[in-house]
Write a structure and sequence with these properties.
- 70% of the residues lie in helices and 5% in strands.
- The chain has 111 residues and is mostly helical.
- α4 (55-77) crosses α5 (82-92) and α4 packs across α6.
- It is elongated, with a radius of gyration of 15 Å.
């Protein structure tokens, strides 16, 4: 969902092939993921193949994007290379506790 959010901000629209290209996944893998997101009412796919985040999906995607951005900025502020910081943020954002993230966010906002 975060990738859908980012690609939509960047390109104005998103299709499964865009997600596959961005993440380096196969089209069938992305199709399975999109099916699951549709079933959970996170996205809808329009007749032209564009993917739209529904309210539930948008809220989660925005939260994940915020976590990614703040974590990436935090690592960069520590002197970590931007590419490495982005990769690490991508991994950590999914497992970091709410308390730890809130502390990092508060710290970054005070800078």
């Amino acid at each position: 969902m975060e990738t859908i959010y980012i690609l939509n901000k960047r390109n104005g629209s998103v299709r499964s092939i865009d997600i596959a290209s961005e993440l380096g996944y196969s089209k069938p893998s992305v199709s399975v993921a999109m099916k699951n997101l549709r079933a959970n009412e996170m996205i809808e796919v329009n007749a032209d193949g564009t993917i739209v985040l529904l309210q539930k999906g948008l809220e989660i995607a925005e939260r994940m994007y915020e976590r990614h951005t703040i974590l990436c900025d935090f690592f960069v502020s520590l002197g970590v290379d931007e590419n490495v910081a982005s990769e690490d943020a991508c991994r950590i954002e999914h497992v970091l506790s709410h308390d730890s993230f809130s502390a990092i966010k508060k710290y970054m906002e005070s800078k």
